[in-house]
Amino acid sequence: MNPSARPKKTALLVAERIVEDIHRRGNQAGDKLPPERVMLEEYDVGRGTLRESLRFLELQGVLTLKPGPSGGPIVQHPDPGALTTSLRLLLQFQQAPFQTVIEARVALEPSMARLAAERMDEEEAKELAEVVRVEREQLNDQSAFRAQTREFHMRIAQGSGNAIFGMLFTALFDILDGNGSGVDYPLKQRKLTVDIHEAIATAIAAGDREEAERLMKEQMLALLTFLKKRHSRMLTEPITWKD
């Protein structure tokens, strides 16, 4: 054991037990947890400790605390956006610039595309192609185009069959897209993006792992080159926690 490691607070230990019990009981979003008096007896802690545990789980998006006599803790599905918030906070304390996010995407997304080519079924591949079709239709609407681009990469991250990839992509994309980064993609860049997205979708539908990986790496490197040329100042700015 690391001698410098601090023991976990009782409230955190209780929070872990509450989550274990939620899974053991098979609770779903919207289910109410037992009343406070029952939980106090079950976890053998004081009211202050239990409430601290519940507030912690509320901050993590596991529960919502409904006030009133008929209220109490209600199970929720954790919001993936919590990872974005936590990662942004950690990166601010590391004084990490926005370029860090792009470099991470360059490293990760080709692997996502390779796995997607291996694991996405025919229906998922058709849905990905449809995303590209709509993306092309929205070339002249930068806001709609950006949303469709996010959907394209998200489908691939989810299609990789690796939950961590899906969560990481959401966090990385939203960090870059948020914080007032002000990235503007001219029409020429948007057309190039759709063209390579179409090629990636075709490679994934064909199950061509090497080609899907190569094309995604090409797109990510092209994105990095574009941002260095057009938004070099933004890339060097430190990531901040606040939107």
From TrEMBL:
<dbReference type="InterPro" id="IPR011711">
    <property type="entry name" value="GntR_C"/>
</dbReference>
<keyword id="KW-0805">Transcription regulation</keyword>
<feature type="domain" description="HTH gntR-type">
    <location>
        <begin position="8"/>
        <end position="78"/>
    </location>
</feature>
<dbReference type="Pfam" id="PF00392">
    <property type="entry name" value="GntR"/>
</dbReference>
<dbReference type="InterPro" id="IPR036390">
    <property type="entry name" value="WH_DNA-bd_sf"/>
</dbReference>
<keyword id="KW-0238">DNA-binding</keyword>
<dbReference type="InterPro" id="IPR008920">
    <property type="entry name" value="TF_FadR/GntR_C"/>
</dbReference>
<dbReference type="Pfam" id="PF07729">
    <property type="entry name" value="FCD"/>
</dbReference>
<dbReference type="InterPro" id="IPR036388">
    <property type="entry name" value="WH-like_DNA-bd_sf"/>
</dbReference>
<keyword id="KW-0804">Transcription</keyword>
<protein>
    <submittedName>
        <fullName>FadR family transcriptional regulator</fullName>
    </submittedName>
</protein>
<dbReference type="InterPro" id="IPR000524">
    <property type="entry name" value="Tscrpt_reg_HTH_GntR"/>
</dbReference>
<dbReference type="GO" id="GO:0003700">
    <property type="term" value="F:DNA-binding transcription factor activity"/>
</dbReference>
<dbReference type="GO" id="GO:0003677">
    <property type="term" value="F:DNA binding"/>
</dbReference>
